[in-house]
Specification:
Radius of gyration of chain A: 21 Å
Structural class of chain A: mainly alpha
Number of helices of chain B: 13
Largest sheet of chain A: 2 strands, antiparallel
Number of strands of chain B: 20
Order of helices and strands of chain A: HHHHHHEEHHHHHHHHH
CATH topology of chain A: Ammonium transporter fold
Radius of gyration of chain B: 21 Å
Distance between the termini of chain B: 43 Å
Helix content of chain B: 25-40%
Structural class of chain B: alpha/beta
Helix content of chain A: 55-70%
Strand content of chain A: under 5%
Strand order of the largest sheet of chain A: 1-2
Number of domains of chain A: 1
Largest interface: A-B, 41 and 63 residues
Distance between the termini of chain A: 51 Å
Number of strands of chain A: 2
CATH class of the largest domain in chain B: Alpha Beta
CATH architecture of chain A: Orthogonal Bundle
Oligomer: heterodimer
């Protein structure tokens, strides 16, 4: 006997699904993590794994307790990795772990999906980490290589020589001596997963190819900062290096690709995406000129996220307005 | 000349099928759709009456006749809620007696018709214009001076080649139908809209006298672009089956009692294009095409826009496809990710995720402002949604609700 099943059209679906989107994000982050481990040693791996594991467990247990259905396990893992990658390799192990716990609990468990555009998990984690351990979050070790730091032990500040980040050096008007290759390969002070521009841009291309990111946001962020860097050169070198330094400072490219360009965080309407990216860029540069050097891109993101929904609605109504106008014409 | 559908989704098109059309055969019992209950149905026969092929069973709307497609006995009338419309459809159940004697022509046949005569024939023959899913007579604007006739042969959904098959098998009738319509209405130009598929390649290379080809390319759905093109060229859009029915009505005096359906899908062993009599039960058609009977989902009207149909029910006259899909494991749905994919692909430039979010009673005004009523139910949003949200279905339900229906 032939049986039929009630379901509405369409009866086929595209290959894209939420799991794939998150899997792509995770693949991108894991690629960055591998490079980071090669550059910073096993401590980078420990920080990333513990942070990701904490985020995953917090969401899993938290959602069981509040009785809400989870989206996919992969998203919380990715969030945990991003949190760890924003930290210098020398931070104590408890810092990204507690930040992952607090941010995932607050954003993904308590607030849930309806508030995802208002507070981003990595931004909340960053605020927490910068508040609890400001010194550790802004001290970068010089000459880090594989095996320099123990994977588990806490690292004392006296143990390593610190260097100013590019943002700090730009602010202090110091002469920067990083080559183009240094910047591309991540051979400069910064968060453990945020410095290797080459691999981040490679992942960005992968995301664009897979349609897993809001590239309009990332591109408009990069173009905005590049324009500012060309107009106001804070280095003693050519404008090209000004662009390079401003883009590599304060994890800018990393945040543009993995956090702001995340398809789930970004606005949905194309026009809103562009304005959102430009706003983040303008605010970031404003903060830099005003003197908030470290991680000002995350602060900008935190502020702009409050306008994310508003931008979407504005552009949507604009779109509908023109649509109606066209229909009336017809 | 080309029409390119820029917005929408890319669907698979790599399917092959024998393009011959199986002629219709007679099922024992037919369930003939008469009309929706709100269409002012005037029944001319009662339960137990005997009817002949081409005999009028009912008049609907403004005297559009509904013909019996076989000779036999009316054993029942019943109403059933349509799966894709929030309305009840009235059916007549006819037991065929196998004594079909041709009784046409039903009206005077001429070599040429005036506009008024042609309008009368279109109405009398009960011709369906399948691209617009309704009676042709309702879509003709008598005050418009049409400049072109567009023969719509666009099969842009997978597993549906009914329009192409009609054109390939009845080219003379399709073009002839369009020509007699053009002559009656004084329309100088005929264009044929075709999608690129494995058979229209050949068609494109060949030529049809007095007909210009327009190739429809790009994504699914092509509908908004076709509508826009028809508007721009002040064209009267007719389906291939509609043209064929026009030809048969004008030159043979026949009403439209059959239509062509592509029976296909992963659960069909012998996919085919079949001509079926109005009211042929799905089960009969499936048996004819060796559909296997294990856990299947039967979809009428195309897998992007169609609806699930039971084996006992019959197809509407504008349904060009009957697809048997295997009942796959329920794919998991997630909450909306706000990714905006649905808005990206929407051919009407709507924001389905936003309409869905505001489609509750409290924000009804917002949903109206978001032009939910402009949705063409192409299903592109649901197709692309990574969270597998039933966006199209929800918007349809919401529109039904706004239009005074009960589905919500």
């Amino acid at each position: 006997m032939i049986k039929s099943n009630i379901k509405a059209s369409p009866f086929i679906h595209g290959s894209e699904n939420a799991l794939n989107l998150h899997l792509d994000l995770l693949i991108g982050l894991l690629s960055v993590m591998i490079i980071s481990v090669v550059q910073n040693g096993l401590r980078a791996l420990t920080l990333c794994l513990f942070s990701a594991l904490t985020a995953w467990l917090t969401e899993k247990i938290g959602l069981i307790i509040v009785g809400r259905e989870k989206s996919t396990d992969l998203r919380s893992l990715a969030m945990g990795l991003i949190i760890a990658m924003l930290c210098p390799v020398t931070v104590p192990l408890w810092l990204p772990i507690s930040a992952s716990f607090i941010s995932v609990l607050f954003v993904r468990v308590i607030l849930g999906p309806n508030f995802k555009n208002l507070f981003l998990t990595p931004v909340i984690a960053w605020i927490f980490m910068l508040t609890v351990a400001p010194e550790e979050m802004t001290s970068y070790a010089v000459d880090v290589s594989f095996g320099t730091f123990s994977p588990f032990e806490n690292i004392n500040n006296d143990f390593y020589v610190t260097a100013d980040s590019i943002a700090q050096q730009l602010q202090l008007k110091k002469e920067l001596s990083y080559s183009f290759l240094d910047i591309l390969t991540g051979n400069y002070p910064g968060g453990l997963g945020t410095t290797c521009i080459f691999i981040i841009l490679g992942v960005c291309v992968y995301f664009i190819f897979r349609r897993s990111m809001a590239w309009q946001v990332s591109l408009s962020m990069i173009i905005t900062v590049a324009i500012f860097a060309l107009l106001i050169n804070r280095t003693t070198q050519s404008p090209l290096f000004s662009v390079l330094y401003e883009l590599s400072a304060t994890s800018y490219i990393f945040v543009a690709v993995f956090v702001a360009g995340d398809i789930i965080n970004a606005p949905s309407v194309t026009g809103a995406k562009i304005v959102y990216g430009v706003l983040i860029g303008v605010l970031t540069m404003a903060f830099r000129y005003l003197g908030f050097a470290e991680h000002c891109v995350l602060l900008s993101l935190f502020i702009c996220n409050f306008f994310c929904e508003l931008l979407d609605v504005l552009f949507l109504y604009l779109q509908i307005y023109y649509l109606r106008k066209r229909m009336i014409k017809r | 000349m080309q029409i390119i559908a820029k917005k929408g989704v890319k669907l698979f098109r790599d399917f092959y099928i024998d393009m011959d059309i199986k002629p219709y055969t007679f099922p024992d019992v037919l369930r003939l759709p008469i009309g929706f209950e709100n269409e002012k149905i005037e029944l001319l026969k009662t339960k137990g009456d005997r009817v002949k092929k081409f005999e009028i069973i009912a008049n609907i709307k403004n005297n559009i006749p509904v013909y019996s497609s076989v000779s036999g006995k009316i054993i029942d009338f019943f109403t059933s809620r349509s799966a894709d419309y929030a309305e009840n459809m009235k059916y007549a159940v006819i037991e065929a007696d196998g004594t079909d004697l041709p009784s046409y022509p039903l009206w005077e046949i001429k070599s040429g018709y005036t506009k008024e005569e042609m309008l009368e024939i279109i109405k009398k023959a009960g011709i369906i214009n399948e691209p617009l899913s309704g009676y042709f007579t309702e879509y003709i604007n008598t005050s418009t001076k049409y400049k072109t006739i567009i023969i719509d042969c666009v099969d842009d959904q997978p597993y549906d080649l009914s329009k192409t098959a009609t054109l390939l098998n009845y080219q003379k009738e399709v073009v002839g139908g369009a020509e007699i319509l053009a002559k009656a209405f004084g329309i100088p130009k005929i264009e044929l809209l075709i999608t690129k598929n494995f058979r229209t390649e050949e068609l494109l290379k060949s030529k049809i006298d007095n007909v210009d080809f327009v190739q429809v390319k790009g994504k699914y759905p092509a509908e908004p672009e076709i509508v826009q093109y028809a508007h721009k060229t002040t064209a009267l859009r007719v389906g291939t089956q509609c043209c064929r029915a026009l030809y048969r009505a004008a030159f043979f005096g026949e009403p439209q009692i059959s239509h062509i359906v592509t029976v296909w899908g992963e659960g069909v062993e012998a996919p085919a294009n079949c001509e079926i009599l109005n009211g042929t039960p799905t089960k009969y058609l499936l048996e004819k095409c060796s559909a296997n009977g294990i856990l299947e989902r039967i979809v009428a009207g195309g897998i992007m826009t169609g609806y699930v149909i039971s084996t006992e029910a019959s197809l509407f006259r504008w349904d060009g496809a009957l697809t048997v899909m295997p009942l796959k494991k329920h794919s998991k749905t997630y909450h909306c990710l706000n990714c905006g994919r649905c808005a990206e692909v929407c051919p009407m430039e709507l924001a389905p995720y936003f309409i869905l979010r505001n489609s509750n009673k409290a924000s009804e005004k917002i949903a109206k402002q978001l032009c939910a009523g402009m949705c063409i139910f192409c299903g592109a949003c649901s197709y692309i949604c990574p969270s597998r949200q039933p966006l199209g279905q929800k918007i349809r339900e919401y529109n039904n609700f706004l239009n005074g229906g009960s589905e919500k």
